Amino acid sequence: MSKSKITIANIEDTPSKHESYQNYEYFKHLIVSKKSENQCTVAIMEIPPQKSAFPYHFHAGITEVFYIISGNGNLETPDGDKAVKKGDVIVLPPGEDGAHRITNTSASELLVYLDCDTTSAADVAFYPHSGKVGFIINGQPNTFFETSENVDYYKGE
User: Fold this and answer.
1) CATH of 20-119, one of 3.40.50.300, 3.40.50.970, 2.30.110.20, 2.60.120.10
2) Beta strands in 33-139 (DSSP E)
3) What is the pLDDT of residues 123-137, one digit of tens each?
């Protein structure tokens, strides 16, 4: 029998993790982590003006769902850029068709969205613009490699 419990959280009472690097910045209020027994993670993301949360990427094994709570942004996709606004629901499937980067297009307001992801003990994330692949273990970025050198399956065996 599961030991998971019902979670009720308020963003005002949930500390945020802040990450910032050049054009990327976010405040992440983690509500349900991948370390829990739940089958999804839940976070509230706050993206400052003119910043992106993460580089353009897609996941091999998880689906992401965003609900825009406030603000306006741009969603970069394989089919081109899409404007997003308060009330929009975005479903990003696993694989190349779900590649994305969300950017706050406002000059002064936060872009705030609910981020729900299915879980996987191990996930592979691909970054087409920078030619990287990364392994994410239990929700934590683990190891990243450049994909410029494709090697034979049996190399080194």
Assistant:
1) 2.60.120.10
2) 40-47, 58-59, 64-70, 72-77, 80-85, 89-92, 101-104, 111-118, 122-127, 132-137
3) 888 899 999 988 877
